[in-house]
Amino acid sequence: MIAETLHELFAANLPKHAEKVFLIDPAREATYAEVDARAGAVAAQLVAHGVRPGDRVLVQVRKGITEVEALLGVTRAGAVLVDISTAWTAGQVRFVAEDCEASLLVVEPAMARMLVASGLDPARILSTLADLPDQTFEPLPRYPDDLAAIIYTSGSTGKPKGVMLSHANVLQGARSVAEYLDLAEADRVLSVLPYSFDYGFNQLTTMMLVGGSVVHQPVPMASEIVRSLERHAVTGLAAVPPLWIQLVRLLAATPTPLPALRYVTNSGGTIPRNILELMSHTFGKAQIYLMYGLTEAFRSTYLAPERFTAKMGSIGRAIPGADVFVIRHGEGVAGPGEQGELVHRGPLVSQGYWNLPEATAEKIRPCPELFGLIGDEPVVYSGDIIRIDEDGDMWFVGRNDALIKTSGYRVSPDEVEDLVHRSGLAADVVAFGLPDEMLGQSVQVAVTLLGGATREALMAHCRTVMPAYMVPQRIHVWPNDMPRTASGKLARPEVIRACQPAAAPLPAP
After folding, report:
1. What range defines the domain where residue 95 resides?
2. Which of 22, 225, 326, 504 makes a 20 to 30 Å CA pair with 200?
3. 292, part of any domain
4. Are strands 364-366 and 378-388 parallel, antiparallel or unpaired?
5. Rounded to whole angstroms, how far apart are CA atoms 389 and 316?
6. What is the layout of strands, in order, in the sheet containing 287-292?
7. Neighbour-count burial for 119-148, b at 16+ CB within 10 Å, e otherwise
8. Which helix (H) or strand (E) holds 383?
9. Which residues contact 112 (CB under 8 A, 6 or more apart)?
10. Which of 90, 124, 142 marks a domain boundary?
């Protein structure tokens, strides 16, 4: 059958793959048939608690087989999945539950106790899935344009917003990514990223599409990830830049053969150039895919691995089934050598933000510069500045609202961070601008220094490799690993806020 809903995407595997291992946890495995039975039990329990088609069900369960059973149970019951990170606090969980008007919350017992103590009605909480009897549950009907999931942003820049994804959005995302990664039923991916992150969720849906297997990695430590890659003969690994930096440095220091690894992917930010240069050596014959996406459009571009060496750092071109354009506002579509804002059109464009029509209209709207090509069809405005090279490949420049305007120049924080990383002296790096009477904004850099490195040595490196206007006015040394968002990215706003009280320039060394 041709799947049209998230439930059907999973169920289509049962005739052929019922006895195949679908999910692997550190302590147990589960076949497609076993997960199907457990998901049926979850769906029945949800309906018994009053959940009806279209209701929102919040899930906050530790990463593993039980979480996937809960996710599939929600969609089988015809409800809308709202999966959130286990790193979120009771206050954040409560906010999301009230914002999306969740009918039921499926959470761990400890979180259930905190939510009840905060005044949430216990009748809205399901705190255990361990003792539910397996049973058959006929899925309740849903349609491709029905709402399938709401993915909440991390909230690092304000209150979380819920991005609404239809069943068609989710399935098209799986099909497009599976096509350009050339995924097949023999693939076995290592799931490090949370399912509350669209990038992580796509790993699960692509494996359901092709009948592959998912190995759960609850502890995102570089050394543990390498052990799992070896132990489980993993064929695919997806991560975000902070984790790639750790993994590549570990493998460069301790080379480890990974013969089963077929491909690795990056999204969620730019990998520093010096780390990119090491990747093709540390991962052997594995193909390297550099990707770009945003939750509101799921996935937008990728760089084909055969162009990795020649176009190291590029985000490539549009994924199958989508169109992306770089727009010069008020002028038209950018051409080779020009830059502008990336906009995305096609079947991956989400339904907008839950209960925020004004924010939706600002983010997803017709594009005057494209009217002659696509009429008034809405597109997603990314807010990201992209440059197009002579071959038509795209390069990320920076956030439209994050560029540092100093001494008459527009400086990309990503460029500053890349040059700092090239020193070999820093682990985590966040560059940002602060108001300055003379300069407009001053360039500031927060870093976690590697062993033996000093602030003075890093400043000397910056003065050597950067033009004068780009050299940081201050280097803020972070005492240990910087905080992360729930998706594993650096929590940039939190780092910047912490640095602001101490932002006065240091005297020259």
Report:
1. 32-142
2. 326
3. no
4. antiparallel
5. 10
6. 29-31, 21-24, 213-216, 188-191, 236-239, 263-266, 287-292, 301-303, 317-318
7. ebeeebbbbebeebeeeebebbebebebbb
8. strand 378-388
9. 105, 122, 125, 127
10. 142
Q: Which pTM value belongs to this model?
A: 0.85
What secondary structure letter does DSSP report for 305?
G
* In-domain check, residue 424: yes
CATH for 113 = 3.40.50.980
Instruction: Determine the Cα–Cα distance for residues 447 and 29; give it in Å rounded to an integer.
Output: 40
Q: What's the number of domains the chain is made of? A: 2
First-to-last alpha carbon distance for the chain, in angstroms, is 69
Looking at the predicted structure, is the pLDDT value of residue 129 above 50? Answer: yes
Instruction: Look up residue 158 and give its two tokens.
Output: 């304000």
CA distance 500 to 503: 5
Q: What is the DSSP letter of 469?
A: G
In the chain, the amino acid numbered 218 is P
Going from the C-alpha of 248 to that of each of 234, 278, 323, 337, 491, the distances in angstroms are: 17, 7, 32, 32, 21
Domain harbouring 423, CATH code: 3.30.300.30
Residue 496 domain flag: yes
Dump pLDDT digits (tens) for 226-279. 999 999 999 999 998 889 999 999 999 999 999 999 999 999 888 989 999 999
Domain end position, chosen among 91, 126, 142: 142
379 in a structural domain: no
Sign of torsion, CA 345 351 354 358? Answer: positive
SS3 212: coil
Question: In this structure, are residues 99 and 80 in contact, taking their beta carbons and an 8 Å threshold?
Answer: no
Taking Cα atoms as reference points, which of 319, 386, 320, 379 lies closest to residue 352?
379
